[in-house]
Amino acid sequence: MAFPLDTVTSAEWVAEVERDVVALLADHAHCELKAAASAHSLIAKNPEHHDLCRALTEVVIEEMEHFRIVLAELESRGGTLGEQSENTYAARLHKGSAGTRKSLVLDRLVIAHLIEARSLERFHLLSHHAKDVRLRELFAELLPSEAAHQGMYAKFARQLFGREDAEQRIAELRALEGEVMRSLPPGPTVHSGDPLRTVAVAGSPAAP
Ligand SMILES: [Fe+2]
Ligand SMILES: [Fe+2]
């Protein structure tokens, strides 16, 4: 399976996050909430783009459904949601893009596309390599809608800002995403660093 990213995560990352499944689920439940909140805020700030708002409404509903599923799994394992911790990965993408940004809306769409694409890559790894069968099933269940979300965000970036400008920004922010991902420490979260460090996809402009 190919992902629209400049770097790929090693299968060793799965063993790293499986060390603390409750922490992984607690963090991920918050990620689903943040994904819903981000789509919600894009609707409120772009009411003139009706097709975008309709698509984002579906995203909000789906992310809240994911939240419900992940929270139920967390609680079935004796965990609780707990305080939200800062998502360093997403914060660094937004901060890192600000200096070269031409349009806040374009960057928000492209960053949402990249976050969904990275989640998709990580869900794919978990659904194939987790030792915990229930975890494999859970992430396999969530995977199809994250695949649709990453495609939807890229589609609207192209539709609203033109193919050429959107593709240029996707390429620039993909490189930033690869850099951010390579610099993050490993840990029990979907957006943690790879213990082997993510490696550049062959032929990628981000190859070191
Ligand atoms: Fe989700
Ligand atoms: Fe999503």
TrEMBL record:
One of its GO terms (biological process) is tRNA modification. SUPFAM superfamilies: Ferritin-like. It comes from the Bacteria. Pfam families: MiaE (PF06175). Signal peptide: none annotated. One of its GO terms (molecular function) is tRNA 2-(methylsulfanyl)-N(6)-isopentenyladenosine(37) hydroxylase activity. InterPro entries: Ferritin-like, Ferritin-like_SF, tRNA-Hydrxlase_MiaE. This is tRNA-(MS[2]IO[6]A)-hydroxylase (MiaE). It comes from Saltatorellus ferox.
